[in-house]
Amino acid sequence: QGLSRMAASEVEYVIMVLRSLFDLFQEVMMKLWDTVHLFDGSVTKRRLKPSFADMLSYKGAPASAQVISDRFGLPLEISSGYERGCAIFDGLKKIRDNLVHKGSHLPHIYGSVGQFVIALRDNPFPDLGIWEEEERQQNDLMPLLPLIEVLLYRSFAVCNDLALAFQKVGELPAPVTPEMLLFTRGFFTKRLVEAIDSGGRRSQLAPLPILRNN
Fold first, then answer.
1. Which of the pair, 59 or 25, is modelled with greater confidence?
2. What is the pTM of this model?
3. What's the gap between Cα 90 and its chain centre?
4. What is the largest CA-CA distance in the chain?
5. What is the secondary structure of 114-149 as a DSSP string?
6. For residue 94, which of 154, 25, 16 has the smallest C-alpha distance?
7. Which residues pair with 57 in a beta bridge?
8. Alpha-carbon distance 122 to 175, whole Å?
9. Phi/psi class of residue 100: alpha, beta or left (left: φ > 0; alpha: ψ in -120 to 50)?
10. Predicted local confidence at residue 210, as pLDDT
11. Which residue, 72, 99, 114, 161, is the most exposed by fewest CB within 10 angstroms?
12. Roughly how many angstroms between the first and final C-alpha of the chain, as a whole number?
């Protein structure tokens, strides 16, 4: 009934949104960086790149935390956050670029009783232990949702990690609305919180995912 293709379209959309999240976050970081006063006055700040991908590479190669620090005058606390975010960002970027620019598709998603599953051999991320053994089905089929939950959690974690490091190294401008509290809710808020919690728990079982080059 086309459910597998519909599920794949939803997963592709989630991946594209997560990929875009990094660039939107980077734009905020770039604008704040221009106004922050560093506690270490000996550091010479340089303008950050508006693209998250451009922050992570130098002369076509992945940049280490030290290289990022030297290029932009970033304290190592911040540049190390960029380096730690490279693995998850690079995986999302490769999948997104293959979908948008090369017309490729995600591995087949199978409909199962009450859930969607993927074949472990077709998983675009290697098996890094994010699944519990009791979740394994016949023919090495694994539930799809845990993979999405881990990608979600780790994408948010990178942004949170950088934001916290940013606050430790300098003085930010005065708040526009002091003591403001923002509350949000929606139809899927509870499920989103559950997904992040699950992704965090599963992330303790495995290192950061690295996309297979295929």
1. 25
2. 0.81
3. 9
4. 64
5. SSEEEEGGG-SS---S-S-GGG-BGGGEEESHHHHH
6. 16
7. 62
8. 48
9. alpha
10. 38
11. 114
12. 29
